[in-house]
Design a protein that fits this description.
The complex is a heterodimer of chains A (about 300) and B (about 475). With about 300 residues, chain A is mainly alpha-helical. In chain A, about 35% of the residues lie in helices and about 5% in strands. Chain A has helices at about 1-25, 60-70, 110-120, 135-145, 150, 170-180, 185-190, 230-240, 255-270, 275-280; strands spanning about 45-50, 50-55. Chain B has a single domain, classed as Porin, CATH 2.40.160. The longest helix of chain B is centred in the first third of the chain and has 19 residues, at about 15-30. The relative contact order of chain B is 0.15. Classes of the chains: A mainly alpha (about 300), B mainly beta (about 475).
């Protein structure tokens, strides 16, 4: 009986100690280390298809998987944040890079849902595709508790992505002309290697250094920050990457222009096997000068540094 | 990690047990408040993820951690190759566990005081102790080239290579083809090397090591790391997995001490399903089958290493399931049907150990070898058995997990006709919890408390009656 008493005593005492720790650690200052500070979880929801996510259901998952970087308070101040480059997303500002919605607007629930499963290449954000749909939907809802924007604003309307036109040498040539005209090369470099004259000076909206994408590293399995398909690249032009110097070109170029730019950018991925490089190879690797048959004035886009840096 | 033996023979007043336990818990209360974290677990440091991202409760993996492991310790992003890491990155983790434990073993044969006489007596011991020390070093040599080296000691500091392998990951760009060569854990999804318990009997899965009473087959132990080659593959999200291993029938021992030309294979496959709010459920199967020697050539009566002959067969097969009921509760289940050749059942197989522990004896049993004209006893049969392991977890939070385990193994056929049918049956219960007072990517620390009851039928040394053993363990399990 004494032995059983010892077991019960030690187990109980251990649990009492365990229960006491959250209160002790909640007084810690940044970075966010230790048990979760007392945070009111607003009853936010997300809707992805027929799945409804609930913020309250994601509290444990957020803490388990996300808080180490994004912070218990969603302020990008997790204990790992100081080591990361680029910095984690600050959810309190509710500015997101990967959206299907116009620049400056909130993303759709599906945008955030897809980002969680896809991860963000060139960053520490992993591919969380082992989660269930419900887990991801709950996490999307949880992200919304950190910023009042989600209570005051609705997500933007997703842009329309027209059908992709055929890849032709002419479209590639036009894309190259746009690449020059829109001064993409200033950041991304003439060969798309991320080494343009402005590259070293770029910062995000929180003044953290940021590097432009290096297309030349791309292989068959290459990914962009917000996806890996031509449609994803198209969306990046037309929605911009909020919080970074990458602007939206939606008001500057027409959809067909954007597709031509996509086709040209794919040729900068010199190690990738794709339709674009096949067309270019058939032309012996030479992109002819583009002859503009319908010249129209274009204006340079404004810098798109809306609030919120990080990945 | 289970490195302490149940061999302490001093008896303590039980009141002392209570006092020590209370003192230990108080020390924890004081020390735990400091929340010091002084070093860096390798993978968490490399990727900047909390331990909880990969571990349901360290060291047990969750689905994300399993995928990370299956990808060759890679997140499949541009941070995988070590060349991109901070030069300060050092892929090494140390793990050791100071403990206090109390072990009570029933029916140990002890001298009675009369000449040559022995009696069975319960022996209880308690005290402070250490686990062995593990040096985990692993990661990527280059993108899609991974490795793991684990020198591990027992609690006296005697080292051996617990795990050593290199792996070609995502061969031809496909996650369906990965090749591993070396000494490694068989692809048990309920991994014994990541077991949440630490005690002598509770710190292993009995199902992974079961050998019938009197059986000489030490080769079919699924829980031991084995030497061989493994081909495995998985879907991008790890929902579908398979692996096929070909291993030497030497139970992971180097130098081919047993069979030089005997091999075993381990095959497993599983499929996971998204069950909505319940979580991801996984069902799978495994088969371990092979041959191992039963006789050896000898020189001066001593077995010649690697000269094993007379290969005989054995098999272990079963199903496993990982069932989740929301975020807080899950149950892990493994079943097994096992069968050994009658030769093993009659004690042939482990001549090396048997000879070492019975110097000067060459008769069978206890030392069974190729004595000229040796024949199996009339009517010898293949021993067979069935078992099940059920391990529920209640995850109160990523920092606090409660666990229980029930294992039972029942003989369905004894090798020798007339043997009592339940001889060697095992039943064991384990309960415990692990509490991590902090949770970062810098170090792991768990306050561990566990109690195990172990019961085996008919194997006491003198009266051949049932044995009951219990163990209470408390400790600081940490790695850095």
């Amino acid at each position: 009986m004494r032995f059983i008493g010892a077991i019960l005593f030690t187990a109980t005492l251990g649990l009492v100690v365990a229960a006491g720790f959250p209160a002790r650690a909640s007084a810690q200052e940044a970075p966010d280390v230790g048990p979760t500070p007392r945070l009111v979880v607003k009853p936010m929801e997300s809707h992805i298809g027929n799945v409804t996510g609930h913020a309250a259901a994601a509290k444990s998952d957020y803490r388990r998987y996300c808080a180490g970087c994004h912070g218990d308070l969603g302020d990008a101040n997790g204990e790992n944040a100081v080591w990361l480059d680029p910095k984690p997303r600050d959810f309190t500002i509710a500015t997101f890079k990967c959206r299907s919605t116009p620049t400056g607007t909130l993303p759709t629930d599906e945008d955030l849902y897809n980002t969680i499963a896809r991860g963000l290449t060139n960053s520490n954000m992993p591919i969380w595709n082992t989660f269930t749909k419900q887990q991801r939907a709950d996490l999307v809802a949880y992200i919304k508790i950190f910023s009042p924007r989600w209570e005051k604003e609705k997500a933007g309307d997703p842009i329309k992505v027209p059908a992709e036109p055929p890849v032709t040498l002419e479209s590639i040539a036009h894309g190259k002309a746009l690449f020059t005209k829109l001064e993409c090369w200033k950041c991304h470099g003439p060969a798309g290697k991320g080494d343009g004259p402005s590259a070293a000076t770029l910062t995000d909206s929180k003044d953290n250094p940021i590097r432009p994408y290096n297309f030349a590293l791309g292989k068959d399995d290459s990914r962009f920050k917000c996806g890996d398909t031509n449609q994803d690249i198209y969306k990046i032009f037309m929605t911009g990457v909020d919080g970074t110097p990458m602007p939206s070109f939606a008001d500057v170029i027409q959809p067909n222009d954007a597709w031509d730019l996509v086709h040209f950018l794919r040729t900068l991925q010199i190690n990738r096997h794709g339709k674009e490089n096949e067309v270019l190879s058939a032309a012996h690797g030479v992109i002819p000068p583009y002859v503009d048959r319908n010249p129209a004035p274009t204006a340079a886009p404004a810098d798109n540094k809306s609030p919120g840096g990080g990945q | 990690m289970r490195m302490w033996a149940q061999s302490h023979l001093c008896q303590k007043p039980q009141r002392v047990t209570s006092v020590l336990a209370a003192a230990f818990a108080l020390v924890f209360l004081i020390l735990g408040g400091s929340q010091s974290a002084s070093a860096l677990p390798a993978f968490a440091r490399k990727y900047g993820l909390r331990c909880s991202a990969c571990h349901e409760s360290w060291p047990m993996l969750n689905y994300f951690g399993q995928k990370f492991k299956d990808n060759g310790y890679q997140l499949m992003n541009d941070r995988d190759a070590p060349i991109w890491q901070n030069p300060g990155y050092w892929p090494v983790t140390f793990r050791i566990t100071p403990i206090w434990h109390r072990v009570s073993t029933g029916k140990v044969a002890v001298d009675s005081g009369t000449e040559g006489g022995q009696v069975e007596q319960r022996i209880t011991s308690s005290g402070f102790d250490l686990s062995g020390l593990d040096f985990h070093t692993g990661g990527t040599l280059e993108k899609n080239f991974s490795f793991y080296v684990l020198p591990s000691s027992d609690n006296t500091g005697a080292f051996h290579f617990e795990q050593v392998f290199a792996r070609l990951d995502n061969v031809m760009g496909s996650p369906w083809f990965n090749v591993k060569l070396g000494k490694f854990e068989l692809d048990n999804l309920l991994s014994e090397k990541r077991i949440l318990t630490l005690s002598g009997n509770g710190g292993i899965y009995q199902l992974y090591h079961f050998i019938p009473a009197g059986d000489g087959n030490i080769f079919g132990q699924m829980g031991d790391n084995q030497l061989g080659v493994e081909v495995m593959g998985h879907s991008a999200n790890d929902r579908t997995r398979y692996s096929v291993s070909l291993v030497s029938s030497n139970d992971g021992l180097v130098g081919l001490p047993y069979g030089a030309e005997s091999y075993s294979t381990f095959i497993t496959g599983s499929q996971a399903f998204d069950a909505g709010k319940l979580g991801v459920q996984r069902l799978g199967f495994y088969v371990m089958a092979g041959q191992a020697p039963t006789t050896w050539l000898t020189s001066g009566g001593a077995p010649i290493g690697g000269s094993g002959t007379g290969n005989k067969g054995y098999s272990r097969e079963g199903f496993f399931g990982q069932f989740y009921f929301g975020q807080h509760f899950d149950v892990q289940v493994v079943t097994q049907h096992g069968e050994d050749s009658a030769w093993f059942g009659q004690g042939y197989g482990d001549f090396v150990d048997a000879a070492a522990s019975n110097p000067g004896i060459t008769t069978c049993p206890p030392v069974c070898n190729n004595i000229p004209g040796t024949q199996l006893a009339q009517g010898s049969r293949n021993p067979t058995w069935n078992g099940v392991l059920v391990e529920p977890h209640y995850v109160y939070s990523p920092q606090l997990l409660f666990l229980a385990r029930y294992e039972t193994i029942r003989m369905s056929q004894q090798s020798t006709p007339g043997t009592r049918s339940d001889l060697g049956n095992i039943t064991t219960y384990t309960v415990g919890y692990r509490y991590n007072p902090f949770m970062t990517s810098r170090a792991g620390f768990a306050w561990h408390n566990e109690f195990n009851l172990f019961h085996q039928d008919g194997t006491s040394p003198l009266s051949s009656t049932n044995i009951n053993t219990s163990e209470l363990l408390l400790g600081f399990d940490f790695d850095f």
